[in-house]
Amino acid sequence: MAAVVKMRLSDFLCFWFIIQSSNCQILVPLKAALTECSTGIETFEKVTGIELPPEERIPLYSSTSGVILADCYNRCRSSSSCSAFWIDYTSNACFRLANPKFTDNNVEVDASKPSSYFERLCLQGDICSKAWVTERIPGHELAGHDDVIIRSVGSRKRCSELCLTDKRLPCRSADYWESRKECRLSRENRRSQPGSLVKSTKEVEYIENACIEPISTKQRDCEWEVMHRFEFPLSDFATKSENLEECQKACETYTAFTCRSVTFDMVTGLCFLSGADMSTTSPKLLKSHENKIYAQRVACIDMSLDCNGDNMVAKLKTHSPFYGKLYSSALLPECEVFGHGKLFTSLEYPLNGCGVYKDADGSFVGNLIVQQHPLIQKRGDAAFRLVCTFPETNRTVTQKIAFEKESESRLVEAGSAPAPILGIAVSVINATAKSPAVTLRIIDRNGNDVSGVTLGDELYFKVEVESTSAYGVFARDLIARSGTNEEELILLDTRGCPEDPAIFPHLKKLTDGSKSLKGRFEAFKFTNDAVVRFQVYLQFCRSECPPIRCDGENSHGRRRRAMAPNAEKVEFIELQKEIIVTGPINGPKSKMQLPMSTKGDDERIHQKDNGMVICTPKNLMMAMIIGFCLFQVAIVLCCAACICYKKDKKGMSLPPSEPTYRSSDVYYARPSLISTLQSIRNSRR
């Protein structure tokens, strides 16, 4: 107890916390906790898989059951004579060291050893408050991912500080070269680039930043790798959970250290969190246990899935250039693609190839492997099960409006994941397929689209569907309406059967292997309107749509199903196609109706005068009005110019007027004029 009395206040509180709590939380590092670290932050560095000689083991804490890391950690921090401690997970005991032991480069690391070494450090800078801030692997390097090289770095500890505090990039790891005094910072680590961590010379040490959050917590579509009936011995904290999903959530939200794996006991409900995983240790450490499930957080793979009518497209997005390989478990050459150093890589599967099969519920299922190396499989590769679902929906189709529905993709929890593919644990991606593109056409016998026809012309009503679509289609509720929507005629009822086969027949599926529908009819029109507008409702079904019997004939329509109270709301999108039909006078108010446009989808202006319908394109009508106005202005200008010209000419032709002289009531001309007249008279004599 004397030792306890001499403790500082923070040490006493830590010791009291250990005694009072059965599940002791790890205390976060405190500033100036040691006299040697008065200007920095006291924390720890972790090394996994090293052996402490028996003669150097000074007992610190042991337990016959439970997790001991928190107790060992807090006891060492509360003792000024503990510079490091070592945990043996096999014996569930820890031992302290008065002086750091594994500080040189000659230490041998064995990933299959169930042990961890924690060394006390005093670091400068803005360091996070986790129980340990770095993890170290002597004699290893992350090859080929050097983003920043800093020279003249005096120690490994200084290299750790540079990685922890660098603002130029998210430094996830660093390689320290002792002989060169170089610190190489990288955005990657052994989990994001598992194939790049290699054994190197003894002068190199790999340092991993344990403060930065895993990539998987920053993105949405990230998974857990789950292994049933296995347990992991390196447990660092224990808590209670109802199920595996709750246990995984506890790991993701734990803050005392970066949790990388869990072991869930299905009998007791205990959830064991660990700061280690298969990337840190060896798969040899996994032990078989019937009632336990092991799960580890894998490197986040941003994978999405698009489901189309004839294929599924898997899209991989990486935060660094990808040089690996995507391929199907069918191992066919046409079902693989290699990365070319880009951030986006995609692979397309046909629905009838690359090992894709149709499940009992009608969905299409395929397998995909993401391999980090272009030639070989390594630990850290991922496998996905791709599932495309094609729901049956009702549509009102139109020619102008596309009705594609965006794919709804999500990643399914891998707790119920299927068996491994080629030895790799599987995640599942589900996506809902887009509806196929559909076009409504009115064509003649040669297959040409028509817009202006005459009564009795042979026409074909055609619903075109992508030939490679996974959907079949049938039609119902086909209605013909007049251009003013004042009159309508039902051609196909809600079952898809024709109301009057003499006017409009059954729709038949084409015999060319496509899923399009076609029906022959003769051009008709309404009495007072030349425009006939067709509108049809379509419903899609997976693969083929069975026809319905209508008066002894097959028609590709079927009875509308009753809508369940909780059924999903059906989405309708309007599609229509119109034609102009001309013919003789059919009534007292009808006159000849001439199609003024050859383009069926133009906007039209309808002008009525005593029953006459004149269909003129809007652009032409506007041009005629503007031309007429300009012509009137030109006439006015011409008239004004003519009047002005005549006035000017008349003024120029008149002689200047002579002044006159008045004598009483008689007017006399000027003398000059009188003398002129006398001269003319004399000359005639």
TrEMBL record:
PANTHER family: FI18240P1-RELATED, RE15579P. InterPro entries: Celegans_DevNeuronal_Protein, Pan_app, ZP_dom. GO terms for biological process: anatomical structure morphogenesis. Keywords: Membrane, Signal, Transmembrane, Transmembrane helix. Residues 37-122, 128-211, 222-300 form the Apple domain. It holds the Pfam family PAN_1. PROSITE patterns: PAN, ZP_2. Residues 1-24 form the signal peptide. Coiled coil: none annotated. The chain crosses the membrane at residues 620-645. This is Cuticlin-1. CDD domains: PAN_AP_HGF (cd01099). It comes from the Eukaryota. Residues 306-557 form the ZP domain.
